[in-house]
Design a protein that fits this description.
about 475 residues; alpha+beta; Porin; 2 domains; 16-stranded antiparallel beta barrel; two-stranded antiparallel ribbon; elongated
């Protein structure tokens, strides 16, 4: 280094001066000696300053190379939002969230149903939360939804991953239905199939065991409360829900997937009501045209004291083409004071989709995930994003034993009927985290007081998540 070269020159010069003094004793006068000592002290100070500068330069270079200084024990990765982690992976932290802005325009066939048309916008989802890892093996997630001018806790759980099976405790989704377990960020249509709402497949407080370490199969089981977290204060007691699911993917390759799955759920209704509330039994209903702002045209009263659900799943991905379907049944034990019958309700759907721009639906751990856009849209890129077209046929049948329930005289199953819905959708993925959606839907109602009604709707969504 240049600083060290100068110091060497100074040393050589000093040595030369000392040599001259040694060879010529007449020059060693007191005044000259004092001057030389002053020069040497100045050179010593310069050398110390040079050493300090060299040491400082070495420290800066070490830090720039990712040195072990604890002040710089941080990694930053961008995954829709910054993900912070310690350099050893012991801790991770990420802010997560999503925003869905929807428009629904719905013709609700008022002459038959008595319900007026809908033309409205809403914040379908407006969520913010955090997720991360503590000491390698303990994961956590907490998310709150502020949509609908209120707040609701969504995912709120701890997960221990240090064993062959993961242990989850908190508020999360029981292990039923492929489409229900997929994030709403990744489903093909704006809303899930009708049977998912009708049979109340939603988050509950509980604990579960899951295994997903093999790319070709998963298994999970858990025990939960029956009452959703937001309604826990309604009852002195709560029911119990058991849930389990198994999936097999004999083909699980990039752009080629064959998925098969099955799940079951058994639950009991909540116990004694609080403050005079009597709706502690189970009921079944779904919105028309598979749109969130539509009214419900097939529904039962509060009738079930227990039920048993089972469902089958299947999906195939061949490059940009995908087919997915599910069939489910729900056997209901009607409270003895209402009717002496046990109806069986069923629901099913089949859909197909195709990416015009070449993308494919990614699959992992028994569900489909985030689409990777080949040519995202951003300033000056010239990218077109990803374009997907899709169609679905969705059926929900709540008509079984409707007359017998009504004849019991306690409740009226007037709207117990069947709903058949056609959907056509177009999705434009601007990038991996942003999507615009258009759905055109029509439901036909058979049976009950809304028999013969046709519910037609258009839905649009602007979506971003991080």
């Amino acid at each position: 280094m240049r600083g060290l070269g100068k110091a060497q020159h100074y040393l050589l010069a000093g040595a030369g001066v000392l040599g001259i003094l040694a060879s010529d004793g007449t020059a060693a006068k007191a005044a000259d000696t004092a001057a030389l000592e002053a020069q040497m002290r100045a050179m010593q100070a310069q050398m110390q300053e040079l050493q300090r500068q060299v040491q400082e330069a070495k420290s800066v270079a070490t830090s720039a190379k990712g040195g072990s200084s604890e002040d710089l024990d941080l990694k930053v990765k961008w995954k829709g939002a910054p993900e912070l982690s310690s350099s050893d992976g012991k801790f991770k932290f990420k802010v997560r969230g999503r925003l869905n802005v929807d428009y629904n325009g719905i013709d609700q066939d008022e002459p038959i149903t008595g319900d007026p048309d809908v033309s409205a916008v809403e914040l379908r989802r407006a969520r913010i939360g955090v997720e991360g890892v503590v000491y390698y093996d303990i994961g956590y997630k907490f998310e709150v939804d502020f949509a609908g001018d209120g707040t609701a806790v969504k995912d709120a759980y701890l997960e221990y991953t240090g064993l062959p099976v993961d242990i989850t405790v908190g508020n999360f989704k029981p292990y039923n239905s492929l489409e229900e377990l997929m994030s709403a960020n990744y489903i093909t249509f704006m809303e899930r199939a009708a049977f998912i709402e009708a049979f109340t497949l939603d988050r509950l407080i509980g604990t579960g065991l899951s295994y997903d370490q093999n790319k070709h199969w998963t298994a999970a089981a858990g025990v939960f409360a029956t009452t959703p977290e937001g309604d826990q204060v309604t009852f002195y007691e709560d029911g119990t829900t058991f849930s389990s699911r198994v999936t097999v993917a004999p083909i699980n390759e990039d752009r080629r997937v064959l998925h098969l799955g099955a799940s079951v759920r058994q639950r009991d209704a909540a116990g004694e009501p609080r403050d005079g509330v009597t709706e502690n039994l189970l009921r079944y209903r779904a919105r028309g045209a598979d749109l969130h702002l539509a009214d419900r045209f097939v529904e039962t009263p509060f009738i079930g004291e227990a039920d048993t659900f089972w469902g089958l799943e299947g999906a195939v991905v061949l490059g940009s083409f995908s087919v997915q379907g599910e069939y489910s049944q729900n056997k209901v034990e009607v409270a003895s004071g209402i009717a002496n019958v046990d109806p069986t309700y069923d629901g099913w759907y089949v859909d197909a989709s195709y990416f015009l721009t070449g993308e494919s639906r990614p699959y992992k751990d028994g569900v489909f995930g985030r689409v990777k856009v080949n040519n995202p849209v951003y300033g000056g890129s010239g990218g077109w994003g990803a374009w997907q077209i899709a169609g679905r046929y969705d059926v929900l049948d709540l008509s079984d034993q409707a007359a017998a329930i009504t004849a019991g005289g306690v409740v009226d199953c007037a709207a117990c009927g069947e709903q058949k819905t056609w959907l056509i959708g177009v999705n434009w993925y601007l990038n991996d985290y942003t999507r615009l959606m258009l759905n055109v839907n029509q439901s036909e109602i058979e049976g009950g007081v809304n028999d013969g009604a046709e519910i037609t709707g258009v839905g649009m969504r602007a979506q971003i998540d991080w």
